[in-house]
Amino acid sequence: MLSKSCKEVLSHSTSIYRSLGTQATRAFTASQLKTSTAILNKQLHYLHSQKVPSSLKASDDFIPRHLGNDSKATQAILQRIGVKSIEQLMDETVPDTIRLPKDQVCVHNGKDIKGIFSETMMLAHLKDLANANKVNKSYQGAGFYPTQIPSVIRRNVLENPNWYTPYTPYQAEIAQGRLESLLNFQTMITELTGLDVANASLLDEASSASEAMFMSYNVHNGKRNKYFLSKSVFPQNIEVIKTKADGLGIELVIDEPANFNWTQAGEYCGYLVQNPDNFGNVHDYTATIAKLKEHKVVVTIVADILSLAITKTPGEMGADIAVGTAQRFGVPMAYGGPHAGYMAVKDDLKRKMPGRLIGVSKDVHGN
Q1: From the CA atom positions of the chain, what is the Rg in Å?
Q2: Under CATH, which architecture does the 161-352 domain have?
């Protein structure tokens, strides 16, 4: 039988958990977050109290499960290495010059820090903190868009444990799952862009566009230093390309594609447009690209990868390079990025492509 005091503690604890669960299901105001913090402090008081039986305390402490040593094993280890306690071990191994004074170890901004050992309580508290955020609708655009991920894709693709569980975690072969997923990414990019080779991603769309300019410059071995950039490219892409061009000594010509000076086309190493552009216009550049090919100008299209499921691909238009962002495939906007950038090129440009390339090897038997 439980004593009256234990029953009161148990009843109080139960009401606290119910209250916490109820509050976590609705949006938190400042006062509600304050209430949640008060509840958490009460729970911490119970956990740290010597008067409350251990049987009534949370049993999902993270530290023992993470470290794996119980008190008996810890004492055996300490005895083996010749010290009486973990504190003595720290005193003998960590120099005083890099250790915080004992009165400052668990102090932040003048307040004592109490550890939340229970994983359940910590997750509940973090959920409360997250619910206190005010989520506004984003109108950022320009390559950053909200996404909807079907549950079947989230579970069977993004959260699929087959990418890593077939391998023991201490062996290098765990990388095979990652290599396979990157190979699938490259294959998807080549299929959507209609080009021959894709790399295993770059930093973001803007840096991918600047690398495309550098590739165009290298194709002509630096003999052509003019580069045409559409005025309708996303602003952040233009700024990064400007920075790259300045360091390389490339002369940027930023204007509307309709104003391109065809009499000087032979002076340009490359030509870059965005599709859809900054104003949402979708263009078919097939005729323009064919004309640029007569002057050996390397053409890059910054393409919305999701739009390529229903629009004419850069490969079909005759472009040499396609770049963009993978954010459209369900990556959260995360205050603007960065999100993985993609790059696909024609086969004759693969040796000049930056980044890493995941390939499929063949043995002497052709397998």
Answers
A1: 30
A2: 3-Layer(aba) Sandwich (3.40)
pLDDT in tens, 94-131: 998 888 777 776 777 777 766 677 787 788 778 888 88
Mapped onto helix, strand or coil, the DSSP state of residue 124 is helix
Write the single-letter amino acid at 53: P
Give dist(CA 26, CA 3) in Å, integer.
Answer: 36
Residue type, 283: H
Signed CA dihedral, 213, 216, 222, 223: sign only: negative
Enter the tokens of residue 71. Answer: 């008190």
Task: Tell me the CA distances in angstroms from 80 to 71, 85, 133, 157, one per residue in order.
Answer: 14, 12, 50, 48
The first and second tokens of residue 362, run together, are 């063949």
Is the alpha carbon torsion for 179, 184, 185, 186 positive or negative? positive
pTM of the model: 0.70
pLDDT tens per residue across span 299-357: 999 999 999 999 999 999 999 999 999 998 888 777 666 789 999 999 999 999 999 99
User: How far is Cα 167 from Cα 111, in angstroms, rounded to an integer?
Assistant: 45
* Beta carbons of 260 and 287 less than 8 angstroms apart: no
Where exactly are the structural domains of the chain?
36-131, 161-352
Q: How far is residue 123 from each of residues 39, 116, 119, 159, 174, measured CA to CA in Å?
A: 14, 10, 6, 20, 28
